[in-house]
Amino acid sequence: MIKKLFAAAVFTALCNASAVQAQNFPNKPIRVIVAAPAGAITDVVSRRIAAAVSPIMGQTLIMENRSGANFIPGAEACRQAKPDGYTLCIFTTSSLLQNSSGDSPAWG
Question: Which listed residue, 5, 38, 59, 85, has the most CB atoms within 10 A of its CB?
Fold first, then answer.
């Protein structure tokens, strides 16, 4: 009885899995928020990575520098970004450690 029930469950799962269609992702440009000034090493490395990844993904990566105020503007822009997978955030480790311990509005 348990073998038949298991077989029925597996059959149902396989039938349902074939009905699921993959979505086309990405189907619009990807926004990359860099919490560093233009020309900084974080920005330069981010742009080189974007130039290499963009042809593979088939979409443009739009670089957006948000620097100043101890990287808080970049963190705030990432926090407010729509959670749809079309926003990447690039920070330095030190900026995340400094801002996570305080009462910064970016870490709400």
Answer: 59
Tens digit of pLDDT for each residue in 35-45?
888 998 889 99
The first and second tokens of residue 103, run together, are 């009462």
Q: What are the domain boundaries of the chain?
A: 23-107
- Listed in sequence order, the DSSP H helices in 29-88 are 41-57, 72-80
How large is the C-alpha radius of gyration of the chain?
A: 21
Residue for token pair 């030190």: 94
The first and second tokens of residue 106, run together, are 């970016």
Task: State the residue for tokens 């928020």.
Answer: 33
Q: What percentage of the chain reaches a pLDDT higher than 90?
A: 21
Residue 14 CA to residue 28 CA, distance in Å, equals 31
Best-predicted range by mean pLDDT (6-15, 19-28, 80-89) = 80-89
What pLDDT sits at residue 79?
86
Q: Per CATH, is 23-107 categorized as 2.60.260.20?
A: no
